[in-house]
Design goal:
Number of helices of chain A: 14
Radius of gyration of chain A: 25 Å
Oligomer: homodimer
Number of strands of chain A: 15
Structural class of chain A: alpha/beta
Shape of chain A: globular
Largest interface: A-B, 56 and 56 residues
Strand content of chain A: 15-25%
Strand order of the largest sheet of chain A: 6-5-4-7-10
DNA sequence: ATCGTTTGTTCGGCTGCCAAACAAAGCGGC
DNA sequence: GCCGCTTTGTTTGGCAGCCGAACAAACGAT
């Protein structure tokens, strides 16, 4: 009747290992703890040691988790240290900006192994952009021998709203020349890996959550100030995309109904006050009042204004102070509405640090007096200009940690390192 | 070796029935389907019919689910209809407003069995308010014979931010005379049931989600316009309370930096534009321009303005149109930030319907042009002035459906009906 | 009346997880 | 150096949960 002898169930381990939700969560735990013993896992999760042993036995043959020696004894037998092999796979993260393309090749811990960057008229040249993305991806993979075989997936950050249910469908309003189509599928077929697409602000928020100022914070907002202004929201530990995937358009929040007209059709949007073009315009307006400023003559760009502000120029300082105040009004509304624990300010202007944040915090303190519980910390991004590309890679990594069949080595030993 | 005979495991059913997450979810399914057969449950959930039989056998002795006859045959044996017994328990929902107290006694389907309402200076009289709540609760229970024994719990809606981790800790800023303490524990001990406290806008949103305009909608915002202005947010089907439980203070969103000062310390908050006192003030300002208006003379209240608007008075119409526009600016920002599928407008002024919503929708259409995907439907509340109290009861009901040990009859047959 | 269909139940079995027992490998006291 | 004591990891038996298959019950259709 019982055709299977007691020990024979070991045969299961040789075949496709089970990968249920519990083993998947252990897999993620080992990833985030870096080094951990079976006994620690048992204490950490409340599982029995025998169960942990069984599940770890299923994870070891994937090559993603390995035993790497013994740890210090705690008074008894020393534990066997399990380690996640962060080099067992790699991910391509693509930052498609309004005027540039950047690609990062990362390992499984978000560490950048290779980096490529080009300026390109992305808005007006969809076909050339797609070719450039493919070229830069190939360049990154070529830099690291063997990486192509270990590629897990490609993440793409796009500078416009994306519906997660239709990841190839881009907003036509922001990128009209793209005609509402991403057209990234050839990329997926060329490299034979799954593709993930999301908005750049969402992915910036994700990067901050995993590697930056948002580590360990379950509810925060990431506000990116560049040519436009966007935000990504992490609620209860996860990126919130809204009902149709376009949450986070803080740039068109109303600040001043008597302000300048915006492309969105009304006046005084945040983007018309603190977007890069708006700050340049404002500097030109104020030039006459600051004849001694280094910005009083010559060609103005957002970079020169930022440099001048860092050097203590009074005109630049005034612009930054005004920008901080206006951003503060929008963020105060955000705090009242959504009550995050933290606001992370990113984008080029965030390198001004407290010069931007102090006037911002002043406004927030005044604006949230009635609900003092809502006051949140405001910090600048910890990740540099690579945050968006790294966030795109992190998006893929997160999906793979939820379903480790995405890892090429996991169930295909011929592709293992 | 096997001391337990095959049929003996029926003894488990006589004792404490198992109540794991699966049986709990079946319990909730039966609740929401009202009438359903075992076979339908199996089709609906993907479980096997045998498993459904086992779990239903555990639910029947609680008295909350019962077999109530046979349904129509679908070509074979007719199904046994299972029905949730909505009268097997009842809940008290307390609406503590700024100037009134209302209490609803509901069955397990949100139906109001008894209702009590009193005006009271809640803000300035904490002790009297607590006594009044207890009195009205007792009155409601006395109206329905036997209800006290079936009481599941008491939910309280308070007009100020509440930290869900410290439900007895109220915001001192909004209700200074309460000194930051709810002091509701005596109520719980008197009626010997658990107590649940939350903000009124959150509970209004919950009521709309379960019984009103938000049924079946996973992401929406509920905006309540009364003396103050508050909002509650349902994200992915659940009420979102923010990092410290105070999300939804839309009343202090900045609309016009040159506007009138607000108690919160700055100018032009939404509450200073469309709160009841603001509308009355605005009517007085405009009186001279509308000599033929019925509001041109006499004492003005928000109710008289609403009545006049319903009757087609031009002054009142202008006020309502302005209010709709200002509310629209705030809601447009909300849409851009959070991208809900629906916005539900509640509070007294919502009875004006399209007279309020049309100018509101106009502003939204203009304001969200850039991210057209974010445009949401705007509707008025379907629930009347009882929505807050019913929402408070629904909060308790939701908790009980997650853990049916909260139902008095479930495991204590002596208290069963 | 017979057959096919649907429902609900029973029964044996597989899977997943656990507790207990045990082996391995350290520490510490004498 | 030997004997406990502790901690770690593995093995084993067992229990709970869920399923598939078989079966009885109750209907419709022919």
């Amino acid at each position: 009747m019982n055709e299977q002898a007691p020990g024979t169930n070991g045969a299961r381990r040789a075949g496709v290992a089970r990968m249920n939700s519990l083993s998947q969560s252990l897999f993620r735990l080992i990833w985030q703890e870096h080094q951990i013993s079976r006994a620690e896992i048992a204490r950490n999760t409340g599982l029995s040691r025998s169960t942990v042993t069984e599940i770890v036995d299923d994870l070891l043959p994937t090559g993603l988790v390995a035993e790497v020696g013994v740890g210090p004894s705690r008074g008894g037998r020393p534990p066997i240290v399990l380690e996640f092999n962060y080099e067992a796979g790699c991910i391509l993260g693509v930052d498609m900006g309004a005027a540039h393309v950047a690609v990062a090749l990362t390992n499984l811990r978000g560490h950048v192994l290779a980096w490529q960057h080009r300026f390109h008229p992305v808005r007006t040249d969809p076909e050339g952009t797609r070719a450039l993305i493919a070229e830069l991806c190939a360049k990154c993979l070529a830099e690291i021998p063997g990486s192509r075989k270990l590629l897990v997936g490609i993440g793409i950050a796009v500078p416009c709203p994306v519906d997660p249910l239709h990841p190839d469908h881009l907003s036509e309003v922001v990128l009209p020349d793209w005609r509402g189509r991403g057209g990234f599928k050839p990329l997926a077929t060329r490299f034979r890996v799954p593709l993930f697409v999301d908005n750049d602000a969402n992915l910036g928020a994700l990067a901050e959550r995993w590697w930056g100022a948002g580590r360990g914070v379950d509810d925060f907002a990431y506000v990116k100030v560049a040519t436009g202004v966007g935000s990504g929201h992490v609620l209860q530990g996860k990126v919130y995309r809204g009902a149709t995937g376009v949450a986070g358009e803080i740039g068109h929040m109303a600040i001043d109904p008597h302000g300048k007209p915006c492309v969105c059709g009304l006046r005084g949007c945040l983007a018309t006050l603190i977007g890069a073009p708006a700050l340049v315009d404002r500097a030109i307006e104020l030039r006459a009042q600051f004849p001694n400023s280094v910005l009083a003559t010559g060609h103005l760009t957002i970079e020169t204004i930022e440099e001048a502000a860092l050097a203590g120029d009074p005109l630049a300082a005034q612009i930054v102070t005004e920008a901080g105040g206006n951003l503060g009004i929008a963020i105060a509304s955000l705090l009242n509405l959504m009550n995050p624990r933290l606001v992370i300010v990113g984008g080029g202007i965030s390198r001004l640090g407290d010069q931007l944040l102090e006037p911002l915090r002043d406004v927030i303190r005044r604006r949230t007096l009635v609900s003092s519980l809502a006051v949140a910390e405001v910090r600048t991004s910890e990740l540099g200009p690579r945050s968006t590309a790294v966030g795109a890679a992190t998006y893929v990594l997160d999906a793979a940690l939820d379903d480790c069949r995405l890892f090429p080595s996991a169930f295909d030993p011929s592709r293992a390192a």
